[in-house]
Design brief:
This protein has about 325 residues and is α+β, with helices and mostly antiparallel strands. It is about 40% helix and about 20% strand.
Length: about 325
């Protein structure tokens, strides 16, 4: 642009400064601070208009992508940011990952409708997630879609891609069940594909209304039982079982920043609960443990010694 319009464009340094201010304002959600700081650095009135435009636009985009700044996200992870009006309920505690099922009924978009009709006779499924050749989500097809196609005429020569719904309501495993319930009500659907946060086109599972209600009841009962039994520190014996609580230290590389599936706990021991601030969740295999988390573990009386030794190792790592 400088080579084509040398009399209109500014020097490269001016664009670098405006870009730096836009990045700072978007990351901190403090656009006025970024504008004032850069103006004081340059003391140039001609930079004000492009500076304000760039910083405000960057802030608007960043706030739509993520509501937290680089400061508030740390407080939220530590449980320091609560809802102002109400206390969190069970639907705010449980995640989609706690209720979703991994067994997803799928079908290829190029599948003929005759084959789909045959599958409806063999299977009890009423809807299928439609994938393309690269196993990416492209839509959802239901038995209602097939019945509508039958009423329209012959199925010969038509495929799933001709009748599937492409505007699909989806959710992520890290969303709360309250958010998912709201989406169910808005879209009037009976199930939603659960998408990979790192790849929004890859399906991890499916969340159905039936499993959602069942998981809500089961996990709520499990929460109440385990929270009532946990002790402030150390290991506690109950009826036929032993419970222990461990606070994760930042320097303990065997636990910190690892998914639950990769933590080497003693045999016959289960990580039953993970408490992060005031939030308590039932961890799944991909749940990542962070510094300050408190893990509740359960084992049998027979393996109590192994659990006690593991807890002492974690406490020694925390002191170091």
């Amino acid at each position: 642009a400088g080579a084509l319009f040398p009399t209109v464009t500014a020097s490269p340094g001016a664009y670098a400064l405006v870009g730096a201010a836009a990045l700072f304002g978007a990351a901190t959600h403090a656009p006025m601070t970024a504008i004032i700081i850069l103006f004081e650095m340059t003391d140039n009135y001609r930079i004000i208009l492009p500076l304000m435009l760039s910083v405000v636009l960057a802030q608007l985009i960043a706030s739509r992508i993520h509501p937290d700044s680089i400061y508030s996200i740390k407080l939220r992870r530590l449980g320091g940011m609560r809802r102002p009006a109400t206390e969190p309920g069970t639907l705010d505690i449980l995640l989609v990952a706690d209720a979703m099922v991994d067994d997803v009924p799928t079908i290829a978009a190029r599948t003929p409708l005759d084959e789909l009709a045959e599958r409806t006779r063999r299977e009890e499924t009423r809807s299928w997630v439609v994938l393309d050749e690269e196993e990416r989500l492209v839509g959802v097809v239901t038995m209602t879609d097939l019945e509508r196609a039958l009423l329209e005429g012959s199925l010969e020569g038509r495929t799933v891609a001709d009748i599937m719904t492409t505007a699909v309501a989806t959710c992520r495993p890290d969303e709360t069940l309250r958010e998912a319930f709201g989406r169910f009500a808005e879209r009037d659907v009976h199930q939603m594909p659960v998408m990979d946060p790192d790849d929004p086109h890859r399906v991890l599972g499916v969340l159905r209304r039936t499993e959602m209600m069942w998981a809500f009841k089961q996990l709520y009962d499990e929460h109440q039982r385990l929270v009532a039994q946990r002790s402030p520190a150390g290991v506690r014996a109950g009826l036929g079982s032993v419970h222990a609580e461990v606070e994760v230290a930042a320097g303990d590389g065997t636990v910190c920043f690892r998914p639950v599936r990769d933590i080497d706990v003693p045999p016959h021991t289960l990580i039953a609960l993970l408490r992060r601030g005031e939030r308590v969740v039932v961890p799944r295999g991909f749940t990542r443990v962070e510094p300050g988390d408190i893990l509740t573990l359960i084992t049998t009386q027979e393996h109590r010694g192994e659990l006690e030794a593991w807890v002492r190792e974690r406490q020694t790592a925390a002191r170091r």
